[in-house]
Amino acid sequence: MFAIALWDTKRRELWLVRDRIGIKPLYYSIHHDRITFASEIKALLKDPGQKREVCEEALYHFLSFITTPAPQTLFEGIRKLPGGVWLRVSEDGTVHEHRYWMSGTIRFLWKV
Questions:
Q1: Backbone angles phi, psi at 52, to 5 degrees
Q2: Cα separations (Å) of 47 from 35, 36, 97, 100, 102?
Q3: Which of 12, 41, 99, 103 has CB 3.0 to 4.6 Å from 91, enough for a Cys bridge?
Q4: How far is residue 81's CA from residue 89's CA, in Å, rounded to a whole number?
Q5: How far apart are the first and last CA of the chain?
């Protein structure tokens, strides 16, 4: 179980990584040319520049299933890093997200 943030000083990149099952939460928001991240949404809402609009699609999921599927949250502009995913933010603002763990059935491709 983990949700971590790592700063690579040599490459000047921020890495956000969440455990494969997604037990530990990791929320982030990219706005005003910066990224904020925390393990709770209320910490992100301390930022006065953070939008506080409701995400209607996420609200639908919450009312239907009592949860919001990642990467959605109840707030527009605040995202939840899915389990088994890492997010890399470069110094120039480039964001790259990658799923490093696939859950469920693993399919093998056999070359005949």
A1: -125, 35
A2: 11, 9, 24, 30, 34
A3: 12
A4: 13
A5: 39
Strand order in the sheet with 95-99: 3-8, 13-18, 85-90, 95-99
Quick: pLDDT tens for 87-103: 999 999 999 999 998 75
* pTM listed for this prediction: 0.85
CA distance 112 to 110: 6
Report how far residue 9's alpha carbon sits from residue 14's, in angstroms, rounded to the nearest whole number: 9
Tokens 């299933």, located at residue: 65
In terms of Cβ atoms closer than 10 Å to its own Cβ (0-12, 13-18, 19+), residue 37 is buried
